[in-house]
Amino acid sequence: MQHILGLVRRCVEDYHMIAPGDRIAVGVSGGKDSLMTLAALARLRQFYPVPFTVEAITLEMGMPGMDFSPVADLCEELDVPYHRVSVPVYQIVFEERQEKNPCSLCAKLRRGSLNTALTERGIAKIALGHHYDDAVETLLMNLIFEGRIGCFQPVTYLDRTGVTQIRPLLYCHEDEIRRCVERMGLPVVENPCPADGASRRQEIKELIADLEGKYPHLRQKLFGAVQRYPLYGWNLDADER
Fold this sequence. Notes:
The protein is an alpha/beta fold. It has helices spanning 2-14, 32-44, 69-78, 89-96, 103-120, 132-146, 174-184, 200-214, 218-228; strands at 22-27, 52-60, 82-86, 125-127, 155-158, 163-166.
């Protein structure tokens, strides 16, 4: 956890993610990445020189078999307020629309529901669980499937809602997060989504793993390329943030 905290603090400082008095919600899906984001920020607030508060918010999307009671217990243990919001995403995507490629619609509905929930609660900043490997995969997905060079930003301001998204795990590798979650015994909620493991992101994840067997440090080189290019919002020296 100390290693993860060091990476999170450096990322937060590099991209000026936290301002004094920030009220930061963590979007908790129940997966390892969002739980690690929650645990890390809850720990960081105890010693970070800039004062901020942390809350957790979960969209309960109607997915059968998902129980967030252990997450509620974790939030109580961490002394973090927990908001659970019911939205019928599963019913819309899989029962009413019966989407053959459901990920895009699901993501759109989740984003809209989350922004609405934040606005209703007067929360203007949310921490998402995207990590180092997610950034590399997103870069390649945009290049291969859309023919463009692009990636999400470390800090994203949504002008329509006034919400700012931050991604404090960006310097953390997925395998580091997985090991830390296991050692801490964080209550991962398994996702029974019918599309899980069959998405384009999974294809890219497998492609990168195969390429890295031939070309060592591929992830490191691609991540460095994102910062050096630089894509908008990624340049450590730019004033655009």
